[in-house]
Every structure is written in C-alpha cells, then in structure tokens.
Specification:
241 residues; alpha+beta; SH3 type barrels; four-stranded mixed sheet; 4 helices; 8 strands; 16% strand; Type II secretion system protein GspC N-terminal domain-containing protein; membrane; transport; transmembrane helix; transmembrane
Length: 241
C-alpha cells in the first residue's frame, strides 16, 4: 500500500515553501526600515523646541533720581539771594525798628514806625502804612509789597536814635503758647499793637516792673536827687546821734 501524498506546503524544503518564507522576511524588513525612516524624517522636519527662559530678578537697584539733576534739564534758575539784592528801596516814610526773622515766614514779624510816629508790630501778610504789605523779614531788612511791586526797607544808620538790634528767633527755642482755635483758622495770632514808651509791663515771674527802652531824663534826675537827699539825711542823723 502506497503512502498517501502530502500537500507541497507541508513538505519541508519544498521550493514553494522557501519562496514564501523569503517573501515574508523581506516584507517584515521593509516595514521595519520604512518605520525607522519615517521616525527620522519626522524628527528632522519638526521645529526645535524653544528653551524655557526664566527671568531672574535684577541684582542692580534703580538709581535714585536727584531732583537737582532733573531741574538742570530746564536750565538753572536765578539765586533767590541775587533776586533780593535787585529789589529797590522803598520811598515810604517808614522806619524799621526791629526785625524778628523766623524759619517759618508766617511767624516772622517786624516793628515799624509809620509817618504818624506810631510804632506797631506787624506779621508777614499784615498791611503796613501806605497800603503796603509785609512780604518777608530778614535779619537786617524787610521786604514789602506795594501794588504788586517788591521793595526793601533797611534799618536806619548806626548813629540813628531809633534803631533796635535785629534778632533772629529760632522757632525751636520758643516756648509753645496755648492755641485757641477760631472759626476761620486753627490758631490765631495777636493783632498789631502800638508800642507805648515808658509803660511798665509786669510779668508773673518777676516782681519788679519792666520798662521799655524810652526814659524821661527829668524824672531820672529828680529821682537821683531824692536819693542823694535821703543819704545825706541818714548821714547827719547817724553823726548827730
């Protein structure tokens, strides 16, 4: 009995089986190469990734702006002291007797005698005789404003009889007075008052009265004569006893 014949694809080493095997292997290799090539091509044409930039805070601080340097961009202004020197002297019949300059212009004041021989104390902003206004107080002169024009008033010459010594008052050295509020402002200041000569002014801390710089020569001579007569009377009484 003859053995039954097998199909060709079941026979090992059959030429048809070898051809099929080679075809399968070539197909697998081709697919692998195509896949690798596609991956490489994709990497080449893709845009490179941008690196992430992290901004660190600046270690340099901004330089401080000097207002003086900024002001120079618009030119250098005129010195205030130079401007004061160019102000003409006033022709008003006023006599400056005292000047109390303060760092705060509102607290500055001056003693001025008018053409009517009346002496009064004026603060900055007060109206002076002659329709002028006290604008600024310096240690040796004052600046007044008349019809919008600035004028200066200096002390009389040194040989004058009505000159007082100018005093600069520091606000930090003054005792603080109680403030009495008003309806118009938070504080009030005394109105200009006339300065009467030979008027005793009593202070609480001093027993003896204080007089202004004006004196009556006849009264002084009479007082001295009375003191001399008393001394002589005391000497005579002691000698006679």
């Amino acid at each position: 009995m003859k053995a039954a014949s097998l199909p060709p694809y079941l026979i090992l080493g059959h030429p048809k089986n070898i051809s099929v095997l080679i075809f399968v292997l070539l197909t697998i290799i081709g697919m692998t190469v195509a896949s690798q090539g596609l991956s490489i091509y994709t990497l080449l044409i893709a845009e490179p990734a941008q690196p992430e930039i992290i901004r660190q805070p600046s270690q340099y601080q901004k330089a401080a702006i000097n207002p003086a340097n900024v002001a120079l961009l618009f030119g250098r202004g005129q010195d205030p002291q130079t401007v004061q020197k160019n102000i003409p002297k006033t022709n008003l019949r006023l006599i400056l007797k005292g000047a109390f300059a303060n760092a705060d212009d509102k607290l500055s004041s001056a003693i001025i005698e008018g053409s009517d021989r009346r002496t009064a104390l004026y603060y900055v902003g007060d109206t002076l005789p002659g329709n002028a206004q006290l604008d600024k107080v310096h240690s040796d002169h004052i600046v007044i404003s008349r019809n919008g024009v600035l004028e200066t008033l200096y002390f009389p010459e040194a040989h004058g009889q009505s000159r007082f010594q100018a005093i600069e008052v520091n606000i930090t050295q003054l005792p603080k007075a109680p403030i009495q509020p008003t309806q118009d402002s938070a504080f009030s200041r005394p109105e200009p008052t006339s300065l009467l000569p030979a008027t005793p002014v009593k202070r609480k801390e001093e027993k003896a009265p204080i007089y202004t710089p004006s004196y009556d020569q006849s009264q002084i001579k009479q007082r001295m004569q009375e003191l001399r007569e008393r001394m002589r009377a005391l000497e005579n009484s002691s000698t006679g006893g």
